[in-house]
C-alpha cells in the first residue's frame, strides 16, 4: 500500500504517544530520548512513543505520563488492549538514546540516553515484545518517519558537529 491523498501526518513531541491506522505517518526528532514504534501487519495500524526518561520519580502520584519509559509503555499497552491485540503480534523497532553532551559530561557518568536504551530493552522483555530492528546509542540526533500503511520506519542519524565540521548524516530505512 502507498501513501494516500488523505494521509494524516502526526509529529510527536517528547512525552507524546500516538496510535493510528493505515492512513497515518508519525514523525519525531530524537536526541537522548527513545522512540518505540509498533506496527501490526494484519491491521496496518500501530503507534509510536517518544519518552525522555527511563522511569517516573517514585514520589510522584499522577495520571500516566508519556515522558517516562515505564508509563509510555503502559499507555501503548492500553492501546494494544483496546485493539484486542497482543504484544507479540507487533513488529517493534527502537531508536534514539544518543549521547548529546559528551563534551560537557564527567568521565564515568552514565548519560541519560544510555539509561533510556537500557530501559527500552527491559520493557521489551518484560512485556513480551520481539524487536525487529533498532538504532540506539551513539552520539547526535535522529529524525524518524513511520508509515503505518506499510510499517516502514525511515531514519536519518546526524552525528554532532565537531569543531564546525559535520561528518554527514546516515539515512536509512
UniProtKB/TrEMBL annotation:
Single annotated GO MF: protein-glutamine glutaminase activity
SUPFAM superfamilies on file: CNF1/YfiH-like putative cysteine hydrolases (SSF64438)
Substrates-to-products reaction catalysed: L-glutaminyl-[protein] + H2O = L-glutamyl-[protein] + NH4(+)
Gene3D superfamilies the record matches: 3.30.1330.200
EC number: 3.5.1.44
Pfam families: CheD
Key words, A-Z: Chemotaxis, Hydrolase
HAMAP family, sorted: CheD
Family affiliation: Belongs to the CheD family.
Known role: Probably deamidates glutamine residues to glutamate on methyl-accepting chemotaxis receptors (MCPs), playing an important role in chemotaxis.
Protein's UniProt name: Probable chemoreceptor glutamine deamidase CheD
Organism: Rhodoferax saidenbachensis
Gene name of the encoded protein: cheD
